[in-house]
Amino acid sequence: MAKSKYEYVKKFEKNDSLLPNTWLVIRVDGRGFHKFSDKHGFVKPNDQKALELMNKCAENVMNDIHDIVLAYGQSDEYSFVLKKECNLYDRRETKIVSTVVSLFSSNYVFNWNKYFPDKELLYPPSFDGRVVQYPGDNNLRDYLSWWQADCHINNLYNTCFWALVHSGKTETEAENVLRGTVSSEKNELLYSQFNINYNKLPEMYRKGSVLIRQE
């Protein structure tokens, strides 16, 4: 940039460099995706094509940003793990987060017709993003374990909820049936009432999706 008398305004920019030698996790989250999924008629509780589209977006982000070594996704969220020694954009938080979010969002729109050729994209989807720094390998492992456990808990509930709704109950009635139930009771409900063995459902639904970079 050419020097001028106006260059002093650059001093107002915030220094947002992230700590060195820490795992960087960029979490991308769908904004208003409950409404988005309803408007576009996603299958409940899991729309395979929608999840595969999310996976494709994550794959393309990883192909573009080589510092990402692993990505984990579930529902309308994806977490991207950047290696400790990453020096992308001098580890500037806003640059890294905005780049990952914009790449993911643009890929979602760009690839929509490949996964939903018979559905018009009614309005642009949007995603927000944040970065979390983890100093140790155990911290990173526990983060990923936390989200995988979250995926299991939410999916088990949603599988029961939508099975009840599809059987004729209202959403309020389904909520009342499931209120206070534990995992074993939800599994029993699925098997006894709907002949669904939860453990045989696709792992992508129960555990989420993992992408790993192989050198």
Automatic annotation (TrEMBL):
One of its GO terms (biological process) is tRNA modification. It catalyses: a 5'-end ribonucleotide-tRNA(His) + GTP + ATP + H2O = a 5'-end phospho-guanosine-ribonucleotide-tRNA(His) + AMP + 2 diphosphate + H(+). InterPro entries: Thg1_C_dom, tRNAHis_GuaTrfase_cat, tRNAHis_GuaTrfase_Thg1, tRNAHis_GuaTrfase_Thg1_sf. Residues 139-214 form the Thg1 C-terminal domain. GO terms for molecular function: GTP binding; magnesium ion binding; tRNA guanylyltransferase activity. Keywords: GTP-binding, Magnesium, Metal-binding, Nucleotide-binding, Nucleotidyltransferase, Transferase, tRNA processing. Its cofactor is Mg(2+). Mg(2+) 2 binds at D29, D76. It comes from the Eukaryota. This is tRNA(His) guanylyltransferase. It comes from Dentiscutata erythropus. The lineage of its organism: Eukaryota, Fungi, Fungi incertae sedis, Mucoromycota, Glomeromycotina.
